Amino acid sequence: MNVLVIGSGGREHALAWAIASSPLLGELYCAPGNAGIADVATCVDIGVDDFDGIVAFCQENSIDFVVVGPEDPLVGGIVDRLDEAGIKSFGPNAAAAQLEGSKGFTKDLCADYDIPTAAYGRFADAAEAKAYLDKHAAPIVIKADGLAAGKGVIMAETDAEAVAAVDEIFGGKFGGAGAELVIEEWLEGEEASFFALCDGKTAVPLVGAQDHKRVGDGDVGLNTGGMGAYSPAPVLSMSMQFALMDRIVNPTLAAMAEKGMPFKGVLFVGLMITKDGPKLIEFNVRFGDPECQVLMMRLMSDILPALVACHDGTLDQIELEWNDDAALSVVMATEGYPEAYEKGSEIKNLEAAAAEDGIEIFHAGTQSDGKKTTAHGGRVLAVTALGKSVAAAQSRAYKAVDAVDWPEGFCRRDIGYRAVAREKQSA
Ligand code: AMP
Ligand code: GLY
User: Fold this and answer.
1) Does residue 98 form part of some domain?
2) Full residue range of the structural domain in which residue 131 is found
3) 153 alpha carbon – ligand 1 mean position (Å)
4) pTM score
5) Atom in ligand 2 nearest the alpha carbon of residue 229
6) CA-closest candidate to residue 40, choices 48, 32, 28
7) Structure confidence by residue, pLDDT tens digits, 267-313
8) How far is CA 171 from CA 132, 168, 180, 200, in A?
9) From the CA of 329, which ligand is nearest?
10) In 309-320, which positions are buried (b, 16+ CB within 10 angstroms) versus exposed (e)?
11) For residue 200, is it within any domain?
12) Which of 17, 25, 71, 426 has the lowest tally of Cβ within 10 angstroms?
């Protein structure tokens, strides 16, 4: 089977790396890929939003299956375009991708099908939004409806901040993504992420994973795409995972099928574990980055037939086996991220760092001229380790991080601290 992976991040490197070991694989390509992905796939210079280019490449290179990594092309309808061309792919079509593409769509679905989530209001008009704020005091959360590269959520601690957020969003701060907004209750608790493969009717849960969104140690500072992740996530006990399938994932699949928009692909359930039980914060319709990196490290089964089964509607025949070991991924980013940063700094000693036992270094924003590897993104590397415990994976990952010679890079030094503390408590 010839496969094309779409995307250029650490998530896509991890997917390509896992797919590369499939006995079913013929040729593996990635568009556009990066310097690390080039070790396992042929990278082709086609942008993730160049749908014509992607379809033409598939036709010219006998691609049998396309794996779409990021949300933008999914929400934009890449799967619909591939379907029209008779090319199989992994991911939801544009209608089903509304689960990530429109927060209002998802909130209404939760309300209609009794799926637990924060209380909310949905508005296309500033005066009505402010009238709602008059009745619901801060702290409160204001969200642009559409995709805003993870930046469209404003946690308003005061009423004045809430009103300002409404004005900013309707004032165009997030462009078209802010034509509508959602105002919702501020949930207290511990966040977790849960993933399930879906084929429109059946869902197969993956193991739990948790990421760290804030840029600074101790979970402080600006929000990022994710500075690290680990799996398993102790907060997602077996009974919690059953509850999540029963209360959130299966009802969502049934609801989407009933609406004539069967969901296929991976459903990423962003959760708050509150004192009243788990509540949905948001759905994403693709793997998390860097959660995908830890999931792929622990997955022992061939991933390719599982991804194809999501398309074919045959997930009921798939069972996934996981390594009992823990995995932990530390993101190394360019100094300055998530704000402005320089491009082009050289990263040395990558090969030696990656050669350590139980280590994979997944690349995100790297380029190579054959001699030098340079950094061209905010998040640049995801240094990922397996270990007998989260603590063991953590110390291995940081040993490899310390072996990377990149003065312009930085990372958090505390990835996995909650899980490590829990392991100590129960030891
Ligand atoms: P989202 O882009 O919806 O994942 O939101 C980004 C982050 O904002 C989440 O990971 C949470 O930390 C936080 N967040 C979003 N909605 C809420 C909420 N209703 N209550 C508390 N925190 C929230
Ligand atoms: N790490 C969170 C995300 O991929 O959205």
Assistant:
1) no
2) 119-185
3) 7
4) 0.94
5) 1
6) 28
7) 999 999 999 999 999 999 999 999 999 999 999 999 999 999 999 99
8) 18, 5, 11, 38
9) 2
10) bbbeeebeebeb
11) yes
12) 426
